[in-house]
Amino acid sequence: MTLPTLPLRPLIVSLALAVGVLGVAHAQSDPGEVGPQPLWEVGAVGVGVSQQAYPGSDNQIRRGLVLPYFSYRGKVLRADRDTTGLRAIKTDTFELDLGVAGAFGSSSDKIEARRGMPDLGTLIEFGPRLRWNLGAGPGGGSWRAVLPLRGVFDLSDRGAHRGMSLEPELQFRRRADAGWNYTASVGAIFADQRLARTFYEVDPIYVRADRPAYEARAGLVAWRVGAFATHKLDRDWRVFGFARLDTVAGAANRDSPLVRQQTGFTAGMGVSWTWLRSEAQAQD
């Protein structure tokens, strides 16, 4: 994938980030909407995020965004709160589709451990995802296993391929009274060597007194636990908040000089608004 030069590139980056923001904001928000949903919706989402620069970093990246979104819920072609692209299989137990995620980039001048090294670009992840409904849980909730395999691309470097990630996750989802929904999750992140090099490798040219050369390895990047809550205010407005803790305990590149602390967090709050929706309903 090659991004055009300015001025089209910022628009493409913004749209990709909108997909990533919606994935964070909505992918885990509803343990099943009640009643039929519109075939398509148009609206906007705003979110403020404080994100660890990368697992093991001692720096936070803070961003605020307001972006448009578009949802379409066809039987196969979908772009909604759970799926982006094609949904190949859907049964009561299993669903196979294409999923997306994203992470903000940052200048290495703002990350002391990486000072003088290449910047971390804005990353977009895209690939197949298997979801397995495991059945009922306590308090009327439900259990679900999610297994996404994604290619990682750098939007700040013309869509350069940065490697592959595997992120298995176990989720507990519960719908509560008064429009609240909750999700708790535990999972892990694995990366191939190419992606591990993006975050943890130190080439000889970047060596300094407190940063020896290091060759990154494929394997476990971090363990992850998270929580998500969303509240539907009315037909058009929804607020949400999320928090996530990552730890590099036992990770393949725990000894990299770019790892400065064992645990780190990501947290954010936001709001989404639906402007237009179709009268036609999705046939799920």
Task: Describe the model.
There is one protein chain. Strands 1, 2, 3, 4, 5, 6, 7, 8, 9, 10, 11, 12 and 13 form a 13-stranded antiparallel β-sheet that branches. This protein has helices spanning 8-26, 193-200; strands spanning 40-52, 60-73, 77-79, 84-90, 94-103, 123-136, 142-154, 160-166, 169-175, 180-191, 219-232, 237-247, 263-277. Helices cover 10% and strands 49% of the residues. A hairpin with a 5-residue loop joins strand 7 and strand 8 (160-166). It is mainly beta. It is globular. It has a single domain, classed as Lipocalin (Beta Barrel).
Quick synopsis:
The chain is mainly beta and 284 residues long. It contains 2 helices and 13 strands, in the order αββββββββββαβββ.
What percentage of amino acids are in beta strands? Answer: over 45%
- The CATH class: Mainly Beta
Q: Describe the oligomeric state of these chains in a short phrase.
A: single chain
Structural class: mainly beta
- Helical stretch count? 2
Helix content: under 10%
Notable characteristics:
mainly beta; 2 helices; Lipocalin; 13 strands; single chain; 13-stranded antiparallel sheet; 284 residues; 10% helix
Write the layout of secondary structure elements.
Elements: H1 8-26, E1 40-52, E2 60-73, E3 77-79, E4 84-90, E5 94-103, E6 123-136, E7 142-154, E8 160-166, E9 169-175, E10 180-191, H2 193-200, E11 219-232, E12 237-247, E13 263-277
